[in-house]
Amino acid sequence: MWQGSGVDLDAYLTRVGYQGDVAPDLATLRGLHAAHVDAIAFDNLDAVLGRPTVPLDLDSLQEKIVRQGRGGWCLEQVVLVAAVLDRIGFTFSAFAGRTRIRTGNKFGPALHVALCVQLDDEPWLFDVSFGAYGPHVPIRLAENSRLDGDWPFDLVREPNGEYVLRFLRPEGPAELYGFTTDARYPSDFELLNHFCLTHPRSPFNHRMVLQRTQPEVRHLLAGSTLTEIRPGEPATFRELDKDETLSAPEEIFGITLEPGDVQALRKILDGP
């Protein structure tokens, strides 16, 4: 189901800068998570550029993200990293979460997808695609679990049984998304992908959204507003001019774009 036999593991490990041996253990899971979020940005540019499809087949994703140096939105990244984990020998399932940050809505559509990895009969939340507010390493999937350090997170459980992942910011906890661990499958991803690409209420098809999580700083670009987050400090915000916005994918988010894509984005920013 997760296509592990089709993944070019060496090429992926080179893309994310992971060095060393891999095995289905916690050390590898931590190392892959940190390397992936450091190297691969959240990127909705195909939708903004008006492409009719965002393919979720593994060959297309390896070409785009691994070989071309692009990012991808959560569904694309989950399909890719699931194949990697499957190839290495991890046992896992996928689930969907209802994003709360920036919406405040606990009952919106469950559009975000992440993985629950089983290690020694203990579940771990493995989420490499939530972007600037997401965790940097896996977190044990249990009520009141915590990640401490420069980028602290915790998991709480609500009376209805949903887990909520929270980013513990100086200004107070930020609820990222609520979820249960009910299994989702690649066929479910296709439906969510279609919504994100085509629905008028999709948050991803009408403006550029780029996000990247690095050890010292996290960046989010929504339209022309750049958010910068550093450990233990309130987030800062800055409006970019058109030239800064066009250069941001490569200079800030490490995304390699074709010259034609840059020109198409310039036309979009110029407006009708």
TrEMBL record:
InterPro entries: Arylamine_N-AcTrfase, Papain-like_cys_pep_sf. It comes from the Bacteria. One of its GO terms (molecular function) is acetyltransferase activity. Transmembrane segments: none annotated. Belongs to the arylamine N-acetyltransferase family. This is Arylamine N-acetyltransferase. It comes from Streptomyces malaysiensis.
